[in-house]
Amino acid sequence: MLQSTEKLVGALVEPTTTNASKTLMTKTMEVQTFTIGKDYKSNMSANVENKNNSLDLDLVGIARNNNGSSAVAFTNFKNLSSVLTADLFYTVNDTKKTMMSAVLSASLPKTPHKVLPSPANITIKHIQSLDPQGVLSCVYWNGSAWVVDGCDVTQTNATHTVCTCEHFSTFALIMQVQAQRPPEAEVEVETNQMMVLLNRIVVSIGLGFLTLAVMTFGLCRWKPQVNNTTRLNLCISLLLAHLLFLLVQESIHLIHPHKIVCTVLSGVLHYLFLSSFAWMLLETIWLFHAVLRLKDIRSPQGLGPHWGYQCLIGYGGPLAVVAVSAGIMPDGYGSDRCWLNYDRGFIWSFLGPVCCILGTNTVLFFIIIILLRTTLSRMQHGPTHDKRIRMLVFKTLIQSVIVGLPWILGFFTENSQALGVLFLALNSQQGTFIFLLHCVLNEEVRQQFWSCCCRRMREKETEVVSSTM
What we know:
Layout: H1 2-10, E1 19-25, E2 29-36, E3 46-50, E4 53-57, H2 59-64, E5 70-77, E6 95-99, E7 103-107, E8 120-125, E9 135-141, E10 146-147, E11 151-156, E12 160-165, E13 170-178, H3 183-219, H4 228-250, H5 252-255, H6 259-292, H7 307-328, H8 348-378, H9 383-409, H10 417-428, H11 430-440, H12 443-468
Antiparallel strand pairs: 1-2, 2-5, 3-4, 4-8, 5-7, 6-13, 7-13, 8-12, 9-10, 9-13, 11-12
């Protein structure tokens, strides 16, 4: 609507060699335009008044950059403040926000080069009484929210405020007053602050262990029959997902006003979390394939499909789900927390694939356990080999529980703070559990860590001896 109005206002502007002004008044808005041409002699700044509001700008300086002519339009929207409310001004602090002016728009119609040679001053009439404790902000509409970039309060009194802006857009004046909360609200705020602090701490710890797991899977030497591809990519997906999630939540007040950025980030989070589940499913499928070929478990060629096919499924599958979801319902991304919207069931674009993967994993594990009981009883392997197979199955099962269980709890956290804390703790520590399960409890990894430490200690001793000689 704002863009259409700006185009209609531009139609009022007609070429002139000196100067011309026009006024248009309707039930919903009042428009004032002022145009100058090549023969305009005054060097004074242009002043456009509009129902107790005024705009001062260097229109002559703008004309110099546009072949000697330029035009300005100043619009007062009488009822738009009830639509573009003060609540659309997102701030870090929890404050009560009040619209202190009508919604105003300043534009340069039929002017190719719209850069202002100097900031413009907009004198805005207050429509409500000024609270002595209130803080005024000059804001402009960026398409999805009120923001303050490029506009500052330079003067104010009981009835008017002067906003100095470096660009033109749709403007308003908003007052913030510290909200008076009832005791119940104070407790809720303190609880939310504790949850934010807890989230910051536990996610940071989980990211540290995920980083260690990625380094271990990437740098340590593994036996050929160990499917390191799925574990490494699972940890990479979880690491990127949790890191991006933490950064988004820490900067939500900066990101949310930019609708496109918030939408893109929620889509990336959707993709990364789905990718982690896809890699978890691939490891279960690999284990199922290994059990079917149990007699070849020692084969140096390894088991399962080529790593390229695994990457195609692990990363291509989630990408297809996100692409289809965005194509069907593009407004499903970009909630208040830059995640998926719950409107019209769009959250099931994430929960649906997750439930399918968890269900498939459960069925595969039952089949794997049955196959193991029948196969190991017929095979002539020693107890060490059987123990190794059972440990492999056990670790993969525990890993599936680690990755999947927190999201099952997520179904029930809406009305339970205790379950919310449990969900946060388990979900954030997925990297910790994976590192303990596949690295700390792995004898081969411990031996490689120990040999690396011993080699480093010997190098230090050699350096000390060399320096003393």
